[in-house]
Amino acid sequence: MNRTPVVFIHGAWLHALSWESWAERFASRGFVTFAPGWPGEPRTADARTSLEALGGVGLDALTDHYAGIARSFDISPVIVGHSVGGLVAQHLIGANVGRAAVAIAPAPVNGVALPASTARLWTPTEASEPLVSLTPRQFHHVLANTVEAQESDRLFERYATPTPRRLLADLGCTGTLPSPRAVADTGNAGRGPLLLISGQEDRLVPDSVTRAVYKQYGDSTAVTDLKQFADRGHSLVLDGGWRSVADYVLGWLDERGIHALPAGR
User: Which is more confidently placed, 48 or 150?
Assistant: First the structure.
């Protein structure tokens, strides 16, 4: 392989298929794209009856899974993560895994707290089942609040899938202490560039939380940038406005000298 790989990591309540438009867009610019699912995730979002293996996935397994993928390439990849995937992307780039990372509406790291009202959105049910599901109405309220109900329902049918309760516990969303993996080395001056992105109408990971995480990188000389999208919610990577976010990321990579065809190839 002689082109730069891009690894997409999806977030909670979404299937890996949620990156399909991004993968096509990045591939059209010459990148080699990969959107591998979480461990135990079925290959299609409509296989919601085959999720037993997914129920046991925690943050350790998720992080190790994508670290192994990122390290498997001859050319160090760009890592693009959304929500929980954005947390994993920050953890990996902080550990010098990957050439660059983009964390979009990322679940918070290093003890940055979600507002109490927001934290409750991460635990919409009180049942003890290993998987936590959203109804179409909850999906619209929590993830796709900036789009019309008709579009939200379409996104739900194509991309929505349950999320492991164990993972939510590892994030500290169920009243437990966060996992030691819910961290990023914000002081690593030798890592690749990092872009944090927030939606200013995001209910699940408010813009204020992403800004608080961004401030933690202030003492590092490594490149860390923040982009805020007005009037956008947590679904900004898959709703009708996805292209503006994807193209911003492509432009940012180009500005940082990260191209589909690495130098010398």
Answer: 150
